[in-house]
Amino acid sequence: MFKIISLIFLMLSFYGCTQEPKPAKAPALPMPPSTQLEKFDQNWPPKYCIEDCIDISDLKNQSNINNAGQENMKIINRIPFPAKEYKKLSSKGQSVVYGKIAVQTRNGRRVVGSNARLYLNPYTSYSKQWFKENYLSGNKMNSADDRLYGYLKFATANDDGNFIFKNIPKGKYYLVGTMMCGRECGFDNAKNIRIASEVFVENDGTVAASLFRSLEN
Fold first, then answer.
1. Which of 34, 56, 93, 116 could make an S-S bridge to 169, C-beta 3.0–4.6 Å?
2. 55 within domain boundaries
3. Quick check: pTM over 0.85?
């Protein structure tokens, strides 16, 4: 009996030693940084405030740091809307544009654009005129053609000023953001500060394109 029990014990021991160990589970990977930026709202702007919510011209409460005396600027007429030029633009893409919007005050303090509104404006002769005459030179312009809004891509920054655009087609764009800043920026009253820059998007790529402005300029 003892021999039988010993034999069974040896067989069980041998069987246990030959079992392959279970593979260890891979540790969970952290989320990519770009997905942590997201506060993305494709439904913005609402239809009822499309004229006031999109800073495509210069608004009455707009603070264009490039030219403080823009009240006396002449109004520039926009060129006719180049419909054929816009129809050639691709409407679908897989690229991502992300970054941060912020300003630096005169005393060196950095203020982020919490919940700032941003849009990507495709590079065309129409948007090129706006960038040159309104954003860079500070001239006022008449209202943009309503057809333009169908070609803009919108996003909203999160509380830290981080933003992200998804599904962007390849091409050149003007990245435009408007943030509100008051006493924290050294102003007596709150002002809308607009910042714009050029970005180029490749096919299926990721573009880091932050917007930053020094209020000394």
1. 93
2. no
3. no
